[in-house]
Amino acid sequence: MRRRRTACILLYYFGTIGRRLPKKAMFNFDTRLQYLKGVGETRAKQFAKLGLYSVGSLLRYYPLRYEDWSLVVPIYDAPLNEMCCIKANVLSAPVEGRTKNNTLLCKTSVSDGSDILNMVFFNNKYISSSLKEGQEYLFFGKLTKNRHGVVEMLSPAFAPARDAEKIRPIYRQSGTLNSKFIERCVLLALSGLKGNIPETLPYDIIKKYRLPSLEAALNNIHFPQDHAALDAAKRRLVFEELLLLQLGLLRMKNDNMSLDSPSIQNDFTGEFLDLLPFKPTRAQIRCVAEAVSDMKKGRSMSRLLSGDVGSGKTAVAAAIMYSVCKNGFQCAMMVPTEVLAAQHFATLTKMYDTTGICVEPLTGSTPAKEKRRIKDALINGNCHIVVGTHAIIQSDVSFSNLGLVITDEQHRFGVAQRAALGVKGKSPHMLVMSATPIPRTLAMVVYGDLDVSLLDEMPVGRVPVKTYQVTTAYRNRIYAFIKKHIDKGRQAFVICPLVEESKSGLVPAVQYFEFLRDTHFKKYKIGLLHGQMKSGEKYAVMSDFSSGKISLLVSTIVIEVGIDLPNANVMLIENAERFGLSQLHQLRGRIGRGSEQSFCILVSDAQSSDALERFDILCKNTDGFAIADKDLQMRGPGDFFGNRQHGLPEMQIASLMTDSKALLEAGKVAKEIIKADPLLKENEHKNLLLEIERLFSAI
After folding, report:
1. What is the pLDDT, as a whole number, of residue 5?
2. Helices of type H across 297-421
3. Selection from 189, 247, 181 nearest residue 218 by Cα
4. Which residues on neighbouring strands pair with residue 672, listed in sequence order?
5. How many CB atoms neighbour CB 679 within 10 A?
6. Most confidently modeled of 146-155, 388-397, 439-448?
7. What is the pLDDT, as a whole number, of residue 97?
8. Of 6, 12, 7, which Cα lies nearest the Cα of 180?
9. pLDDT of res. 421
10. Handedness of CA 466, 472, 475, 476 (dihedral sign)
11. Is-contact 301 430, C-beta < 8 A?
């Protein structure tokens, strides 16, 4: 049956019965697409724009959606303005003509016995030769009424009724590669590989979970026999993708653990926590203990620290670094921006004031003379902790005895990078700090190469921020509200989505700063901060704001992460609809860090349901983990994790959000496989290993 189906589809593409089919191609998954019949170098470049280079990658390019041609409706009952499929005979040969603007127009009429329907095609010179009078076809399209009230179907997809697939794939297009051409290439690839698609999953897993073979799954994901076959193909491919992901991450975790890192035997964290001016939460104490335990075991620590904004991640990191330094080792803390580097430097310097621990800042804008001094201090061991941007991992930066690297999730270090940073063959321990809370189940997958510590408790005495959404009509009242709080000695933020004025209609930071400075806030000290300013200018503005010299700071999202200013208690966010839910929560986290009530005001005239739903969630919730869950539901994991998935293969068919059952099943199987065969050297795992290496090759 499958053989006849394939032959029928090939006939559909290559001509009528009697024309010879192409000879069976001889190629494999690694064959370059340019050698597929009809592709060539030019179209291969178009495929490359889709990230497709080989036959294997083409077969993993799954349909975007499907057209269901199995539900045939009579013309008489066909709904207007909805996609549907009808089976009808062509009543007359198509008639060609031209519109007023010289567009080629082809018309014909069809009937299925219940009614007659006009078919209209634009710019298709092959219609006359493709639709034969008296022949029966399936037509898939939308019925509409023209200006004369006549019902017609415009440019429908069609195929001979006897040959047509019931469920047809639709692919994401690019340039000259339309869906039909991609479909043809996939069909040729499957035909050429018939009987030669290597199985990736061990037989016992296929049997246990009742999965179809890889060849059957690929055939049915592209050209489903029916809905049941399509569902089975999806289930198989989703399970395989999640299994490969988790196997790859577990192998990375084993590689991390195999690194030879310094043994941090003595625990001095309690000594540091006693120095803090506040009582640490139980969650902070637990997270510190987990990290210390890792470093004591004689294995390399690779741990993720995830917590809500304001949950005290910096204090946890400071306690861990204190213990590492007291054991005679150095620490490097790498952050994404110079503004955040300056903030952490100031905070750590204050925390370690009486401890004798030397902290130095090192960024791209650090003066050359100061850089040389800091680099010398790192080499001779006089500098214990360096805080900075990517400048701290440049080749000309060396350490005397580096024991710990702390980084953000966008700059996770691989095994090779950690080994290069190490001294005397010892690779440093690694702590990854997540800027936003991540639901635990997903954290265990997306950061499956790391152990996970969750800061799920807020410091005592924090007053939840009150959040309101208003329209631009309320601006003058908001300005009065801000001035009222500044007059009480407090400070405020105004957040804008853009730096300079544009045609988008969004509020630009520079012009808004000038407007506020020259009008409503003439009597107040107002500052401006954005990413295009020079580092020295940004540092000066943040210093003035921290010291209280500036009362109102107009800023872009450059202050999104890590800025800690307890005296700031009001935030106005302009064009709030332009920010994602987690990003709004992250911005809001810059206030509410003191014991006084804080206020976040979202200004937007947007009426879209998505924007209003985001505002409603934020106004009713202050729990970052709950907000992260909602954000995941609204945006999906791809958009939610964004750059945080850097270093992980992109999901082609599986969803970390909706395929939770398959995620857990695949995770369980992955652990069993790695436990039994850590290096995947067994014969039944060799194809799994090849697929894992392919998936993770580019990271």
Report:
1. 52
2. 313-326, 338-351, 368-380, 415-421
3. 189
4. none
5. 10
6. 146-155
7. 87
8. 12
9. 65
10. negative
11. yes
Q: Residue 333's closest CA among 354, 310, 357?
A: 357
Which residue ranges form the domains of the chain, and what is each CATH number? 2-66+173-197 (1.10.150), 70-164 (2.40.50.140), 262-455 (3.40.50.300), 466-621 (3.40.50.300)
Pairing between strand 157-160 and 302-307? unpaired
Give 178-209 as a DSSP string. -HHHHHHHHHHHHHHTTT-----S-HHHHHHT
Beta strands 104-111 and 116-122 are antiparallel
d(CA 403, CA 574): 43
Q: Greater confidence, 456 or 416?
A: 456
Q: Are 82 and 220 in contact (CB under 8 A)?
A: no
List, in sequence order, every beta strand (DSSP E) within 72-171: 83-90, 95-98, 104-111, 116-122, 136-145, 151-154, 157-160, 167-170
Predicted local confidence at residue 424, as pLDDT: 54
The first and second tokens of residue 228, run together, are 């049941």
Taking the C-alpha atoms of residue 403 and residue 421, their distance in angstroms, rounded to an integer, is: 10
Q: What is the pLDDT of residues 486-519, one digit of tens each?
A: 999 999 999 998 876 655 556 688 999 999 999 9
CA–CA distance, 432 with 20 (Å, rounded to integer): 60
Low-confidence winner among 82-91, 599-608, 657-666 (lowest mean pLDDT)? 657-666
* More confidently predicted of 451 and 394: 451
% of the chain surpassing 70 pLDDT: 88
The single-letter code of the amino acid at 485 is H
Report how far residue 151's alpha carbon sits from residue 491's, in angstroms, rounded to the nearest whole number: 65
151-154 and 136-145 strand pairing: antiparallel
Place of tokens 């190490």: 422
Residue 590 burial (CB count, 10 A):
25
Say whether pLDDT at 20 is over 50.
Answer: no
Whole-structure pTM value: 0.71
Q: Which helix (H) or strand (E) holds 8?
A: helix 2-14
Predicted pLDDT of residue 473: 95
